[in-house]
Design a protein that fits this description.
Helices cover 65% and strands 10% of the residues. It has 445 residues and is an alpha+beta fold. It folds into two domains: 3-228, no CATH class; 294-445, Histidine kinase-like ATPase, C-terminal domain (Heat Shock Protein 90), CATH 3.30.565. The strands form two sheets. Strands 1-2-3-7-6 form a five-stranded mixed β-sheet, covered by helices on one side. Strands 4-5 form a two-stranded antiparallel ribbon.
Length: 445
């Protein structure tokens, strides 16, 4: 291949991969601001595409390797969820297959070109390549215009099906193009065969695009179902928190009601020098109102309720609880969101401390304060060192149907307020640190 054709190949690949990169930037965005990684990845992708197109003559292998390269490019160089990066990473191959099918269908139906000339440097190839790029551009910019930047959630099984579908599409497209060339090379072929072949190509194209759209729709439904499941769980958690508030208030009212009776009884025992009976009465009173000693008072009723109830549950399971809690009178983060975070963290901590194979007595350390204009929460608990992971995310070890929703709820809220979550799994302990920016708050070290 001459340098002229090599330059033409580089130009075409740059244009096509550039449109792909533009689509990914619109749909996925940068991983971080002023990130040049997509442009370096684009340069490598153009070089890789050029090398494949000039050295590998099996089109199936070329398109398949480009499919894998596109997915890697989208996954490593762009933001958004893993499912979204995978889905849009497949876009270039899908658009390429569709555009190729259209070009060969048009060539079969409306021209008398020798289709063998499309595989070698020729003027016909230049013409068809330009038509191919125009069709690709229409696909890319139509997709950009009609779709907004959104997160697509596809379960692993659907990602596998999508990859298999595109792989089969590559093979089918190659067979269709091969059939077009074979028919053109047959002298006695009737003109009706060309129209049948063109119609077949259009039908195949429609089925392929329909399947891709179906995958996107399924992804939307899966995402909505996941979101509704999380919202339902969060609603149940908030409802439990308010029930804890009611129970705590009932306990306090009962304690207030009985307070004078207890003081009168103790005063009478003291006046009669019945000190042994007074000591026994105090011991019984302390056991009766053990839950009152677990009450937390931060000035935020909802937080007080969830912290008090979880601490009471922990102590009733023989777990030592230490707490350092300092909060201002007003918070910019709603108490309901903080309750979801603390409720999930403390539930996980209690669950971990109840396991049998701990290497030390069960304990939970709770720290909540304002630090450097941020709300700082840290929960440390004893652990057996066994953790359940999925895609580098922690899963709870509670009911099978609830796997992962606790940490997903926490991460969702933290990300919403521009904060971050850090999890430190160790052999003997597990630590979760949450920091959320607070607008207009002065830090307390």
């Amino acid at each position: 291949m001459s340098f002229l054709w090599l330059g033409w190949e580089v130009l075409i690949n740059t244009f096509e991969e550039g449109m792909f990169c533009y689509l990914l930037l619109k749909q996925l965005g940068h991983k971080k601001e002023k990130d040049s990684l997509p442009y370096w990845g684009l340069a490598i992708l153009v070089l890789f595409t050029t090398i494949l197109n000039t050295t590998v003559h099996n089109s199936n292998i070329v398109i398949f390797l480009l499919l894998v390269a596109d997915i890697i490019f989208a996954t490593l160089c762009f933001g958004s969820s893993h499912s979204s990066r995978f889905f849009w990473g497949c876009a270039a191959s899908a658009i390429g297959i569709a555009s190729n099918t259209i070009v060969f269908s048009l060539a079969s139906m409306f021209t008398n070109y020798n289709l063998n000339s499309l595989a070698v440097p020729s003027f016909i190839r230049i013409q068809m390549t330009l038509i191919y790029l125009v069709i690709c551009s229409v696909f890319y910019f139509t997709i950009i215009e009609i779709t907004s930047k959104k997160t697509i959630t596809l379960p692993r099984i659907l990602r596998i099906f999508l990859f298999v579908l595109l792989s089969l599409g590559i093979i089918a497209s190659d067979k269709l193009i091969g059939l077009s060339i074979a028919i053109h090379n047959t002298a006695d072929t009737e003109i009706g065969a060309f129209h049948i072949l063109g119609f077949t190509g259009i039908v195949y194209l429609g089925i392929l695009l329909g399947c891709i759209i179906l995958f996107e729709v399924l992804g939307d439904y899966y995402q909505k179902n996941t979101r509704l499941t999380m919202q339902l769980r969060e609603a149940n958690l908030v409802q439990n928190h308010f029930e804890n508030i009611q129970a705590s208030m009932k306990t306090l009212r009962q304690w207030k009601h009985d307070y004078h009776h207890h003081t009168q009884t103790m005063q009478l025992l003291a006046e009669n020098n019945q000190f042994s009976e007074l000591k026994s009465y105090l011991s019984e009173l302390n056991d009766t109102f053990a839950n009152v000693t677990s009450m937390v008072s931060t000035g935020h009723p909802t937080l007080d309720a969830i912290l008090s109830s979880k601490i009471l549950i922990a102590k009733s399971n023989g777990i030592v609880v230490e707490q350092v809690i300092f909060l201002p009178e007003s918070l910019t983060v709603p108490q309901t969101d903080l309750c979801i975070i603390l409720g999930n963290l403390l539930d996980n901590a209690i669950e971990a401390c109840k396991k049998k194979d701990l290497l030390q007595p069960p304990y939970i350390n709770i720290t909540i304060k304002i630090h450097k204009d941020m709300l700082y929460l840290k929960i440390i608990n004893s652990s057996d060192g066994i953790y359940v992971m999925d895609n580098n995310s922690f899963l709870s070890t509670k009911k099978q149907g609830e796997h992962g929703y606790g940490f997903k709820s926490i991460n969702k809220i933290v990300e919403h307020y521009g904060g971050f979550a850090k999890y430190e799994p160790k052999e003997r302990s597990f630590a979760a640190t949450i920091m959320i920016p607070l607008e207009g708050k002065e830090g307390i070290a």
